Amino acid sequence: EVQLQASGGGLVQPGGSLRLSCAASGFKFNDYAIGWFRQAPGKEREGVSCISAGGITYYTDSVKGRFTISRDNAKNTVYLQMDSLKPEDTAVYYCAKGEPTIWTALSLDSYHDWGQGTLVTVSN
């Protein structure tokens, strides 16, 4: 059974940092891309970042230079380091497993297995 467990969310002040983790099991981790997505209240889910099986990274424009995605294949885990957080980063963050192309790296349709979300709140 494919399982993806996102963790690391919480409350942080603007300008602060959080590191999200996505622990995976039930499939050959090295063979798949892992993406991070987020959904803010009243908004559609959007792609944030992706790391391919080969370690190529993709970011949506709003997080470039602030977020860093990485993967540890020995631990079957993907991380999302989030720095310089802004109130508009507030959302539930989800990780997902998929096989995107370079053109669909942040497209929800390229991902077929999803974990539960972890809430990130950026506020004073």
Poorly predicted tracts of residues: none
Number of helices: 0
**Gross geometry:** globular
**First CA to last CA: what distance?**
40 Å
Question: Into which percent range does the helicity of residues fall?
Answer: under 10%
Average pLDDT rating: 96
Largest beta sheet, briefly?
7 strands, mixed
Along the chain, the helix and strand elements come as EEEEEEEEEEE
* Strand portion: over 45%
Radius of gyration: 13 Å
How many beta-strand elements?
A: 11
Q: In oligomeric terms, what are we looking at?
A: single chain
- Which structural class matches the secondary elements? mainly beta
Descriptive key words:
four-stranded antiparallel beta sheet, 11 strands, mainly beta, 49% strand, seven-stranded mixed beta sheet, 124 residues, globular
Report what the structure shows.
There is one protein chain. The protein is mainly beta and 124 residues long. It has strands spanning 3-7, 10-12, 18-25, 33-39, 46-51, 57-59, 67-72, 77-82, 91-98, 111-114, 118-122. Strands 2, 4, 5, 6, 9, 10 and 11 form a 7-stranded mixed β-sheet that branches. The chain is globular.
The gist of it:
With 124 residues, the chain is mainly beta. Helices cover 0% and strands 49% of the residues. The protein has strands at 3-7, 10-12, 18-25, 33-39, 46-51, 57-59, 67-72, 77-82, 91-98, 111-114, 118-122.
